Amino acid sequence: MSREKRLKESNYTHVIHPFPALYGADSKILILGSLPSVKSREQNFFYGHPQNRFWKMLAAVLGEKIPETIEEKKELLHRNHIALWDTIYSCDIIGSSDSSIKNVVPTDLNRILEESEVERIFCNGKASGNYYKKYQESRTGIEATVLPSTSPANAAFSLEKLIEIWKCIL
């Protein structure tokens, strides 16, 4: 049986990261997710699920207006010297469930680190932190700070609590 047929029968989908990292030469902070959700892949941009609190949290931490469009989100990140990327380049996954991820191929962070001023790395959630530690930390030499996920699946943390904890990126 082919890999594609096995994946289909098991509800797994093989996903290759559909869009590039977002960073500039003056990026100082890198925030890593694990892999874009189904909604983010549909929108072709980071944190696209309307219930994900990433953009509300980040705007509050930075004292800025909540960005609505992809262009506004990019401007917010560039203005604040923040790069975004994910720890996984490709994997097999069921929907958007981090707990279902298998057959991981990690992203290559070298280009971002070589072409920017990134000094600090933050992982958005435990899955991202675990994959970073497993595949990328020894290559980058930068220890990441793992912060609570902004995903709607992380109901244990209110938006207010996320904002308070994520202030450490400043």
From TrEMBL:
- Per its UniProt record, what InterPro entries does this chain match? Hypoxan-DNA_Glyclase, Uracil-DNA_glycosylase-like, Uracil-DNA_glycosylase-like_sf
What's a Pfam family this protein contains? UDG
Q: What is its EC number?
A: 3.2.2.15
- Lineage top rank: taxon: Bacteria
Keyword Hydrolase applies = yes
Tell whether Hydrolase is among the UniProt keywords. yes
The EC category is hydrolase
Keywords, alphabetical: Glycosidase, Hydrolase
Which terms in the Gene Ontology molecular function aspect does this entry carry?
DNA-deoxyinosine glycosylase activity
Q: Where is the Uracil-DNA glycosylase-like domain?
A: 19-170
Q: What is this protein called?
A: DNA-deoxyinosine glycosylase
What species is given as this protein's source? [Ruminococcus] lactaris
Q: What is the lineage of its organism?
A: Bacteria, Bacillati, Bacillota, Clostridia, Lachnospirales
